[in-house]
Design goal:
alpha+beta; Cytochrome p450; three-stranded antiparallel sheet; 47% helix
């Protein structure tokens, strides 16, 4: 049986019922993607974790034009990279970027994140109520942070935000391709500027790295710009919503800030951040859970469903800020584990700690059921988050 997954959002804090039903039937399922292509959806925690680091799966395809697609995004909807050199290319990419995002460097940057968050919350406190917490904090903080780290002018945020949103479009491939092209062109402009006027930032340091050309620096920089703010915007907004929807847990964190790191891991485990999973393509035939995957097949590794596997997370649909949820798969696993994970954790910890401490009386201005979740972009997330304090 082939399942046609529903792609409309069911709510900001809900796991789609069909996914829950599929998960009770097993770990691997034949599905049709948003664009009608056949694929395999993997929903079991242990299976997703194992396949995330399995060399039999990759992001490239020997015949990209014939490959199944998960959606229309040029960035994440189909195969990426050169099939013959994918592994070496990935190793090179990580070797170039990892030194700039080590846990130690990110910890050293934490005071700056604290200062930026404080400035944004001071501005929020002066606004009329209700105010949109997404616009006041969740959106600007990750953009400010990644701009400072990379050396991207914050004043350009309206321009590059337009292009990253277009690139993430899962419904309109021409728009997505154009956005990706505009973003790369902008990256080349920044590289040329850094060549002339280097500074203490990641793009300048990549420019100074032997053997790295302008196009490669531009590609790496724009990948960081996209990944470095789009997903964290979503996480901060949904994290605040989860706490505001559970006032007892909000209050507990205000009284015991040392619980914030655990709360952040539970927020990272939570639903509402887009859907469909991480696309991979089989590089050969293999079996998993009694299902034969053929070479070239699209395999969707649903880390969101895996994060709600009741065999690993008891009562998985309940938000519990005290849960030890650090084994979640939101950042992936293995060789492709997210390079930006230390930075994302810091931003979430700082933002939520300052929120519950600085505005302890904050509450939702509308019922949760009235909040809209985006279904047109890869990362999902809230349209707005009206609050009063």
């Amino acid at each position: 049986m082939t399942a046609q997954l529903p792609f409309e959002q069911t709510g900001p804090l809900q796991v789609p019922p069909l996914l829950r039903e599929l998960q009770t039937q097993g770990a691997v399922h034949k599905i049709r993607t948003r664009v009608g292509d056949d694929a395999w959806l993997v929903t079991g925690y242990h299976e997703v974790r194992r396949l995330l680091d399995d060399p039999r799966l990759g992001r490239s395809h020997p015949c990209p034009s014939a490959a199944a697609r998960s959606n229309e995004s040029a960035l994440f909807g189909g195969p990426l990279g050169n099939y013959a050199t994918e592994k070496a290319d990935h190793v090179r990419m990580r070797s170039l970027l990892q030194p700039h995002f080590t846990p130690g460097l990110m910890r050293a940057f934490r005071p700056r994140v604290v200062a930026l968050t404080a400035e944004l919350l001071d501005e929020l406190a002066r606004q009329d109520q209700p105010a949109d917490l997404n616009a006041a904090l969740a959106l600007p903080l990750p953009i400010l942070v990644i701009c400072e780290l990379l050396g991207v002018p914050y004043d350009d945020r309206a321009r590059f935000r337009t292009w990253t949103q277009a690139a993430a479009d899962v419904l309109d491939r021409p728009r997505s391709e154009q956005g990706l092209g505009e973003l790369f062109t902008y990256g080349k402009e920044l590289v040329a500027r850094k060549r002339r006027e280097p500074a203490d930032d990641v793009i300048s340091r990549l420019c100074a790295t032997d053997g790295v050309g302008d196009d490669e620096v531009a590609m790496l920089a724009m990948a960081l710009l996209f990944a470095g703010h789009e997903t964290t915007v979503v996480q901060i907004g949904l994290g605040a919503l989860l706490l505001l929807s559970n006032p007892d847990q909000w209050q507990a964190l205000a009284e015991s800030p040392d619980r914030i790191p655990d709360a952040v891991e539970e927020i990272l485990r939570a639903p509402g951040k887009g859907g469909g999973g991480i696309p991979r393509y089989a590089r050969g035939d293999f079996d998993i859970c009694g299902v034969t995957i053929r070479a070239g097949d699209l395999v969707m590794l649903d880390n969101g469903a895996a994060n709600h596997d009741p065999a690993v997370f008891p009562d998985p649909d309940r938000f519990d800020a005290t849960r030890r949820a650090a084994s979640h798969l939101t950042f992936g696993h293995g060789a492709r584990y997210c390079i930006g994970a230390p930075l994302a954790r810091i931003e979430l910890q700082v933002a939520l700690a300052q929120l519950v401490r600085g505005l302890p009386a904050m509450r939702l201005a509308v019922p949760v059921e009235e909040l809209a979740v985006r279904g047109d972009v890869l990362t999902g997330g809230l349209v707005e988050l009206p609050v009063v304090w």
